[in-house]
Write a structure and sequence with these properties.
Layout: E1 5-9, H1 27-39, E2 44-49, H2 54-64, E3 71-74, E4 79-84, E5 87-90, H3 92-102, H4 106-114, E6 121-122, E7 133-137, H5 143-156, E8 161-167, E9 174-180, H6 185-196, E10 203-207, H7 213-216, E11 221-224, H8 230-239, E12 244-246, H9 257-267
Parallel strand pairs: 1-2, 1-10, 2-3, 10-11, 11-12
Antiparallel strand pairs: 3-4, 4-5, 6-7, 7-9, 8-9
Helix pairs in contact: 1-9
Length: about 270
């Protein structure tokens, strides 16, 4: 059967609960409901969209018992891994397309520039790629300061990038990612939609953080789970339009994590109430 629809979702904080937040309902039970629904959707592809690096994403999918997807967009959109014959294969077309724009020397140039900042330490090799260079910085360094210093230096030297800054919720360590300006979760998912011939109106995406924001307002059918940050909800309400839904405990669901995804699927009538 041809795949005419696409379900895509973030992992951490969406399909995978934040361990520091306890859902009011049984997330394992909700996940079983989600998997049962997914198994009946024979005309639909499944994609997980995450900031995790590939091996960590794949292990998380296995550990949480999530359905095996048709593709994994990882490293904040820097890599796409497609399922082919039971194995995940790197999508070289996505990488080559972006390296043509950013330059095949993108990663070495970024590393040369960032050596000037003593407060940054490059992350482990498996967390980096030709299209994403990531760094740690100390808990005492403000996120805004780290971002501004990196952005200013990169712009000054003519590197067209976007810089993502966040913190490890477990220890407060700062995390700084540098990617070519055209590399993002949104652009990676739209690349797959075009590749597979699936229109945005036939795609649902669920997420919870600012890293998901550009996808949530990109024109696909968006689900913001109830546990999302307040700023994400506010921005999606303002800019998301009619094809965005913020879970809040309707349709007999709690609204957080997998329950919020199920609530959104009911809203879009992809799942019966």
């Amino acid at each position: 059967m041809a795949h005419r629809r696409l379900f895509a979702s973030d992992l951490d904080g969406t399909l995978v609960p934040d361990r520091s937040v306890r859902p009011r309902t049984d997330n394992a039970k909700n996940l079983r409901r989600f998997k049962t629904w997914l198994e009946t959707q024979l005309d639909m592809r499944v994609v997980y969209v995450t900031g995790r690096y590939f091996d960590y994403a794949r292990e998380g999918i296995r550990r949480e018992g999530l359905p095996v997807p048709h593709a994994i967009i990882c490293n904040v959109g820097a890599e796409i891994w497609n399922l082919d014959g039971g194995e995940f294969i790197l999508d070289h077309g996505w990488e080559e397309r972006n390296l043509e724009t950013a330059g095949k020397d993108f990663a070495p140039r970024v590393r040369t520039v960032m050596k000037q900042f003593s407060f940054l330490k490059e992350q482990e090799p498996e967390k980096n790629s030709n299209l994403k260079i990531s760094y740690y910085f100390g808990p005492s360094v403000p996120e805004a300061e780290a971002r501004v210093q990196a952005e200013n230096m990169l712009v000054r030297l003519g590197l067209m990038t976007h810089v993502i800054v966040s913190r490890d919720p477990n220890n407060g360590t700062g995390l700084l990612d540098i990617l070519p300006v055209d590399v993002s979760k949104k652009n990676a998912l739209w690349y797959l939609l075009k590749k597979w011939g699936i229109p945005p109106a036939s795609c649902v995406f669920s997420g919870d953080t600012m890293n998901d924001y550009d996808l949530l307002i990109s024109g696909v059918n968006a689900i913001v789970v109830a546990n999302a940050k307040r700023e994400v909800k506010a921005l999606v309400r303002t800019r998301g339009g009619q094809n965005s839904y913020i879970a809040c405990g309707n349709y007999g669901e709690e609204g957080a994590f997998v329950s919020g995804v199920l609530e959104g699927l009911k809203h879009y009538r992809w799942l019966e109430e």
